[in-house]
Task: structure prediction
Amino acid sequence: MSEETKAPEATKATEETPEPVDPRIEKANGQLELVKSKVVAKFGEEVIEEALLAKFQPTLVIQNERWADVVEFLKVTDELGFVYPEAMAGTDHMAKGYFEVYLYLHSFVLDMDLAVKVRTGREEPSIPSVTHLFSGVNWEEREIFDLLGVPFTGHPDMRRIMLEDHWQGHPLRKDYVVKD
Amino acid sequence: MEMTKDTNQQPAYMQFEGFSEEESKELSKAGIIVGTLEQIKGWARSNSLWPLTFATACCGIEMMGTGAANYDLDRFGIIFRASPRQADCIIIAGTITKKMAPILKRLYDQMPEPKWVVAMGSCATAGGPYVRAYSVVKGADQVIPVDVYIPGCPPSPPALIYGLNKLQDKIRLEAKGKKVR
Amino acid sequence: MAEIRTEELLMNIGPQHPSTHGVLRVVVKVDGEIIRDVEPVVGYLHRGTEKLAEDLQYTQIIPYTDRMDYLASMINNHAIVNAVERAMDLQVPERAEHLRVIVVELNRIASHLVFLGTYLLDLGAMSPFLYAFANREKIIDMFNRISGARLTFNYMRVGGVKWDAPEGWVQDVLDFIAHLRKEMNMFHELVSGNEIFLERVKGVGIYDADTALNYGLSGINLRATGFNWDLRKNKPYSIYDRFDFNVIVGEKGDCYDRYVCHMSEIVESMKIVEQAAQQIPDGPVMGKVPKILRVPAGEYYSAVEGARGELGLYIVSEGKDKPYRMKWRRPSFVNLQILPKLLEGQTMSNLIAVLGAVDIVLGEVDA
Result:
C-alpha cells in the first residue's frame, strides 16, 4: 500500500460533496476515527504514522518502536477489545525501501476489523514481536522471518519454519533470484 | 508362461515354454507351474505388490481413493504398508520439496530389495505446476530411480491402476530377462 | 526397593507417517507414556505458491489454489474469486452464485467425510473409511461432471463459473442429498455411540474459547468451544444470507465435540445445498468482466469460511494484471499451532486422537 495510490480514494469519499457518500465508507471512517482517537489519547500523535481507509478497511500504520505497545493497548482495552488475530502478512516494498508487516485484528466488542501495519527499513530490519499477546501469530512471525527475512525481537523461537535451516536468502524478497 | 483361453470355453491353461500344447494342458490341470525360478518369483512379486504410503500432496488423496471401496486396489494384491521395511514399491504421490528429498532418499534406502518406484502425477514426474518454485525438486527421479511415470494432475484412480499394472508387467518381463525401459 | 530409573525420550513421528495426514513431522519428548513437550515441524510441502502467484495473472492463480487445501478445492477457488470480485466491485450472475454455493457446500461435505474416514482410521476403525470414501466418491463424480476434474477442479472464474451445470445435474444433487441423509444415520449407528470411540475422544484435547481466540483458531476448532463464529453468518459473502442454516457449536471443546461438529455441519451443508438447488434460476453463468483483470491499486483482505476455518486472502496490488503480493491466511497453518498446548501432559496414545481432530491438510499448512 502506498500513499500516492491509496490516498486519493480516502480523500475522494470525504471531499466530493455533491455525490452522496457511500454509507460503507462513512461507517468505516467513523470506526477509524474512534480507534485512532483512543490510540492518540494514550500514546500521542506521533505513534500513528498514517491512518487511512483501504477500500472499506480502516487501517493504521504504527510507529515501529511502539508497535507491541499499541497492539497490546488495542487488545487489553475493554472498549476496543481487538482480541482475535485473524491474519498476518509481510510485504517487501522494494521501491519504497521498506518491509511492511500487516496484522488483521477483529474486535467482538466493536464488531469491526482493523488492519494495523508496521514498517521497517530494508537494511537491518527489525520489528517487535507480538507473540506474547497473541499465541496465534507465533508461526506467522516465523514464516515472515523465513520468507521475508524480518526478525521479530522478543520472539521465543525465531527460526526458519518452511525452509531448511541452511537455506540462503529469503524468497519473498523482490530481489531474490530463483535458482534451479 | 502365457495364459491362453481355450476356444471350447474350457478352463484356461498356461502355455509353458518348451512344452507342447497337450503337455501344457496336462500340467495346468494337475496344478503344476513350470518356469524358471526367476519367472515364478516375478509372477509372485508382481501380484503382491506392497507399496509404501508416501502421500505428500493432492495425489495422496487420489491414492487413498484408489485404495478405498470404489476402486479397491486390494484386488490386485496391492496393499498399502506404512513402513518402508515391509514395502516392495513406493508410490510417490505428490510434490517433492527440497526439504523432503533427503527423507525420500532415506526411505528408499530403507526398503529391502527388490524395490520399484512409481512416480504418480506431474509433480513427482517433473515438478508439475510448481516447476518454477524455489523449493521444489523437479521430479522425483532426481533423487531416486523411477520405474513408472503416471501423468496427470492428479492422475485419476484408473490411471493409477493402469500405471501399477504396467509396473506388474515390467516386473514379469524383467524376470524373463528382458530389459524394460 | 530400588528407585526406578526414568529418562526422557525423544521420539520422532513423521514426516512419512500414515496418521499425520501428509508430511507433518512431530518431535515428541516423552517421559514413559506421558508427553512432556511437542514440536510440530512443518514445511515439507512448502511449494512457494505465494511467490509463484506474484508472477501469474489472477486467472492463472486459480489452479494453484486447488492444490492448497486439496480436500476442499472449490472453497479455495471461491476464496480467490470472491477476493478479486470484491476488490474490483464485479457482479456475479445469480445462477453462477447458486452453482458456487452448491459446489462449495458439496465440497465441504466431501472434506468432512474425509475427516470422518481418516480420523476413525487413525483411531483404529477401518470400515468408516470405506463408507466415507464411497459417499465422497459420489460427490467427486458430480464434480467431475460439472468441472471435468476429480480433485483439482479449477471451476470458478472471476465473475462467475467456467461451466454451466449439465442437464439433470441439479436433480442428481438433490437425489444424492436424500441418499446421504440415510447414510448419515448409518454413520451415527456405526460410530457415534461406539463405546471404544467415545473413550478415546471424550474429554481429550480440551481448550476454552479464550484460548482458541488467542491462538487465532477458526472454523470447527473455534466453534467446538461453544463460540459462535461462522463467516457465512458473521461476515456474509456470496449469497449465504439468503439461506436458512444453523451454526453448529460444541460445548466443551474436546475431540468429541469436534467430531460432532463435523457430523452436524454436514447436515447443515446439506440444507444449504438443497435450498440452493431448489432456488437456482436460469441465466448466464459468467458476468461481464474485463478480458484482463486488473485489481485497482491498494490492498485488500477478504475471507471465506473454509472447511477448516477462515480462509483469507490478502492482496497487495499495484494496479497491474498480476498481484504485487498475495498472502493466504491458511486455517490449517494457524490451527496447528495449538497442538503443543493440547498435548502437554497427555499420554502418547492421545497424540493421534488430538492431532486428527485438529483436522489439518498439509498442502494448506505449508502452502
